[in-house]
Design a protein that fits this description.
By secondary structure, the chain is of the alpha/beta class. The protein has 2 domains: 2-127 and 247-327, FAD/NAD(P)-binding domain (3-Layer(bba) Sandwich), CATH 3.50.50.60; 130-244, FAD/NAD(P)-binding domain (3-Layer(bba) Sandwich). 29% of the residues lie in helices and 26% in strands. The protein is built from 9 helices and 18 strands. It has helices at residues 28-39, 72-85, 135-143, 151-154, 170-179, 198-206, 253-257, 294-315, 320-332, and strands at residues 2-4, 13-15, 18-24, 44-48, 89-92, 95-101, 104-109, 114-122, 126-128, 163-166, 186-189, 210-211, 216-221, 226-230, 233-239, 241-244, 248-250, 281-283. The strands form 5 sheets. Strands 3, 4, 5, 6, 7, 8 and 18 form a 7-stranded mixed beta sheet that branches. Helix 1 (28-39) links the parallel strand 3 (18-24) and strand 4 (44-48). Helix 1 runs parallel beside helix 2 (72-85) and helix 1 (28-39) runs parallel beside helix 8 (294-315). The longest helix is centred in the last third of the chain and has 22 residues, at 294-315. The model has no long low-confidence stretch (mean pLDDT 93). The structure holds flavin-adenine dinucleotide. Flavin-adenine dinucleotide binds next to helix 1, strand 4, helix 4 and helix 8. The site of flavin-adenine dinucleotide has 39 residues, from helix 1, strand 4, helix 4 and helix 8.
Length: 333
Amino acid sequence: MVLSCDCSCTRRAWVIHTYDVANVGAGPAGLSAALYAARYCRSTIVLHDWASRAARIPLTHNVPGFDAGIAGPDLLALMTRHAEKFGATLVEAHVDLVAKADGYFTLVDVQGVKWAARSVILATGLKLNQIPLEGDVHEAAIAHGVLRYCPVCDAFEHKDSRIAVLGCDLSGAAEALVLSGYSRDVTLLPRRDVELTDAELGNLERAGISLITESVSRYEPTTNEMVLHFGSNNNPLAFDVLYPALGCRPRSRLAAQLGLPLDKLGKVAATAPFGTDVPGLFCAGDVVDGLDQISVAMGHGAVAATKAHNWLRERDGDTAEAVLDHGRGDGDE
Ligand SMILES: Cc1cc2nc3c(=O)[nH]c(=O)nc-3n(C[C@H](O)[C@H](O)[C@H](O)COP(=O)(O)OP(=O)(O)OC[C@H]3O[C@@H](n4cnc5c(N)ncnc54)[C@H](O)[C@@H]3O)c2cc1C
C-alpha cells in the first residue's frame, strides 16, 4: 500500500506492508482473533497498549478448562504464546487513528507510526468506573479479593460473605439482588445520593437487602476486609468485599472514528463480531454489547477472525462458490 508523506522531506511516498488482518487489542478477544486469523494463514498483526482488563484478575474460576482457576496474566501469557506460535505479530502501540480509504485501513499510533490492513478487528475492551483509591492501593484491594467489580465473575467465591454494594440506583439495586442469591448479608449504600424511590427502597428491604443512606467518605481496604467510613459518623463498617456498581466506559473511540453507531453505554452492536456496515471491519469482546466475560470475548474473537477471513476470500474470488462457478463457466465455453 502506498501512503503519501505529510512532512516536507524529499520522499513523497513510501510503501508499507499491508496485513490481511490488523487486530487492535491483546486481551482474550484480540488474542483469540489473532490465533484464528494466523491459523487461516492470514498475515496478522496485533496492536495493543498493555491495558487488558484480564491482566488485573488475581484468579479466575470461570474460564472453562481451568478448574483450579488461572491468574489473568498467566492466561494472557499462554494466549499470546499460542497466537505467536502460529505466526501472529504483537506490537506495543497506542492506536490513535483509524481510517478506511481506497479499500484499505490505515492505523496510526500516538507516535505517528502507520500500519495498513485489508481488514480490522477492534477488540479494545472497556474501562471500569472505579472507586477513588490510589492506583497501587486499588490493585492490592482487587488482589486481596476485598474489592470486586463483577458478580458474574466471582460472586460464587463470596457465598455467605458480608457484601457491600456501592451505588444506590437501579444498577446498584440489581447487583445487590443478584448478590443476595449468594449471601443473606448484603448492604446497599450510595456513592453520593440515593436515587431510588422510597417504594423501591422498601421493596429492597423486604428482599433482605440492608440499606445505608449516608454516602461513603473513605475506603480503607485491608488484606481481608473493606472498611468503609461515613461522613459525619465515627463508626466505620467492615465488609468482606465491596462491589462498586458504577458502570464502565467502553473503549469505542476507534469504532466511532470509522462511523460505527454506539449504544447509550458507548458499546458497538452485538452483531459486530459477524460484521459491520464498514466492509472488512469487525469487533470483538467487551467493546461489543453483551456479557463482559473472557469466554465470550474468546468466542467473539473466533467469529470475527473467521468472518474477516471469509470476507477476504470473497474479495479475492476465493470462495467455493466463486471457484466452482468459474470452473463451470470455463467448461461451458
Ligand atoms: C478485576 C477483574 C476481574 C475479572 N474477573 C473475571 C473472571 O473471573 N471471569 C471472566 O470471564 N472475566 C473477568 N473479568 C472481565 C475480563 O477481564 C474481560 O471480560 C476480558 O478481559 C475482555 O476481553 P477483551 O479482549 O474484550 O478486552 P481486554 O482484555 O480489556 O483487552 C482490551 C485490549 O485492547 C487494547 N486497546 C484498547 N484500546 C487500544 C488502543 N487505542 N490502542 C491499542 N490498544 C488498545 C488494550 O491494551 C487491551 O490489550 C474481570 C475483569 C476485572 C477487571
